[in-house]
């Protein structure tokens, strides 16, 4: 198969769809790989490393799309790319359709086959292609939150770890999935007091078992959220309803309960966000303030640490890229139920319930 890897063009997105190590495995199986010039540079992979393993460097994104049967990338195609997508072309990337009707309509119109990393789902309900980026974003959420809590950057002026004689800051985490647990780990490591909430008791039992005693679990309800946002300094949104829109757990009127300078980091922004006041931001301009609450809502957080994220992403996508390249998407999805869950839009039809429901 002919595989194309374009350079990402989303704001400050320096990840690339495949490492040279991944390309090596594809060319070993006699597949052809076209990669856009400098696509890997931001992740520490100059063109030379790709040509050494048999990839062909092409100058423009137009050429990558025009030559390829399958496009392997990181983020959803953006408007510039819509007209480049060919009928029947296979697109393997993150899409997060439920948060964008424009993207959904464009992919329906393209007559392509869209397999979304974020809905590839194992038998046990875990999301193997979302997990590593959620691990990155969960850990980053505390790094970013701690930074914006500093007074010159508009926060409350609280040091999360406190100091001897002064209590630590308080972090509230909504969702005890991958993002939530990684955020809890980082916040606990800094010495902050952590409250983590979920509606899944199994997850809360797990967190209770593995975390130190300054991480406390609490069932996620409006009553409990209203209570805790009055005393916590940093609130992290990490909830997910697979493939669907995130539930709005903190409404506009609830912001008034928070103290000025409280920071919210809504990692769930890519599925629409769990704060009513969430709107997607970029690494270039990551925050905005509403009712004195600092909002950080960057939809591609791992893009800022591409040296780590590109490796972590290829680790998990490569086995599926190989299956798709070796047998084509129909046979690969028939043989692998986990991969088949990634089918979101096929030749103009939405085939994933969560997306259809988001726009019903
Ligand atoms: N902004 C960014 O750069 C990135 C965003 N993400 C996003 O972060 C979100 C979370 O991802 P994961 O942690 O991997 O998902 P996950 O499925 O591991 O965890 C989500 C958790 O939310 C819980 N939940 C659902 N409804 C809830 C409610 N009403 N109250 C409390 N908890 C609730 C679920 O029970 C589950 O435990 C996703 O939308 C994902 O796409 C992931 C990576 C990067
Ligand atoms: C998962 C996702 O949206 C990201 O890695 O940017
Ligand atoms: Mg995202």
UniProtKB/TrEMBL annotation:
Protein's name according to its UniProt entry: Alanine dehydrogenase
Residue span, Alanine dehydrogenase/pyridine nucleotide transhydrogenase NAD(H)-binding domain: 149-297
PANTHER family named among the record's database cross-references: ALANINE DEHYDROGENASE
InterPro entries: Ala_DH, Ala_DH/PNT_CS2, AlaDH/PNT_N, AlaDH/PNT_NAD(H)-bd, NAD(P)-bd_dom_sf
Cross-referenced CDD domains: L-AlaDH (cd05305)
Domain Alanine dehydrogenase/pyridine nucleotide transhydrogenase N-terminal per the UniProt entry, residue ranges: 4-137
UniProt record similarity statement: Belongs to the AlaDH/PNT family.
Residues the record lists as binding substrate: 15, 75
Residues given in the record as NAD(+) binding sites: 134, 198, 203, 220, 239-240, 267-270, 298-301
EC identifiers of the protein: 1.4.1.1
Keyword annotations of the record: NAD, Nucleotide-binding, Oxidoreductase
Catalytically driven reaction(s): L-alanine + NAD(+) + H2O = pyruvate + NH4(+) + NADH + H(+)
GO biological process, one term: L-alanine catabolic process
Organism field: Subsaximicrobium wynnwilliamsii
Annotated catalytic residues: 96, 270
GO molecular function: alanine dehydrogenase activity; nucleotide binding
GO cellular component, one term: plasma membrane
Alphabetized PROSITE patterns for the sequence: ALADH_PNT_2
UniProt-listed Pfam families: AlaDh_PNT_C, AlaDh_PNT_N
């Amino acid at each position: 198969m002919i595989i194309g890897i374009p350079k990402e063009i989303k704001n400050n997105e320096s990840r690339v769809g495949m490492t040279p190590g991944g390309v090596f495995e594809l060319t070993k199986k006699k597949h052809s790989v076209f990669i856009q010039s400098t696509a890997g540079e931001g992740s520490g992979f100059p063109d030379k490393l790709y040509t050494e393993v048999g990839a062909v460097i092409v100058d423009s994104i137009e050429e990558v799309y025009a030559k390829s049967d399958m496009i392997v990338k990181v983020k959803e195609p953006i408007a510039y790319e819509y007209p480049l997508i060919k009928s029947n072309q296979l697109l393997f990337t993150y899409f997060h359709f439920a948060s964008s009707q424009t993207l959904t309509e464009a992919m329906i119109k393209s007559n392509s086959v869209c397999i979304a990393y974020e809905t590839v789902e194992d038998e046990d309900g875990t999301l193997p292609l979302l997990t590593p980026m959620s691990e990155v974003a969960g850990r980053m959420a505390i790094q970013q939150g701690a930074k914006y809590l500093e007074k010159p950057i508009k926060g409350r002026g609280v040091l999360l770890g406190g100091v001897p004689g002064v209590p630590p800051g308080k972090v509230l985490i909504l969702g005890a999935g991958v993002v939530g647990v990684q955020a809890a780990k980082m916040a606990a490591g800094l010495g902050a007091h952590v409250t983590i909430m979920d509606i899944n008791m199994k997850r809360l039992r797990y967190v209770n078992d593995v975390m130190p005693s300054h991480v406390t679990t609490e069932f996620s309800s409006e009553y409990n959220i209203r209570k805790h946002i009055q005393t916590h300094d940093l609130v992290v949104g990490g909830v997910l309803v697979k493939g669907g829109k995130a539930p709005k757990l903190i409404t506009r009127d609830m912001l008034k309960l928070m103290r000025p300078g409280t920071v919210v980091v809504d990692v769930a922004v890519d599925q629409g966000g769990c704060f009513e006041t969430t709107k997607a931001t970029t690494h270039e301009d990551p925050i905005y303030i509403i009712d004195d609450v600092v909002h950080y809502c960057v939809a591609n957080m791992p893009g800022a640490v591409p040296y780590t994220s590109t490796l972590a992403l290829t680790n998990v996508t490569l086995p599926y890229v190989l299956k798709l390249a070796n047998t084509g998407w129909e046979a690969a999805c028939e043989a692998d139920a986990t991969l088949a869950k990634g089918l979101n839009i096929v030749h103009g039809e939405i085939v994933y319930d969560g997306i259809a429901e988001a726009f019903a």
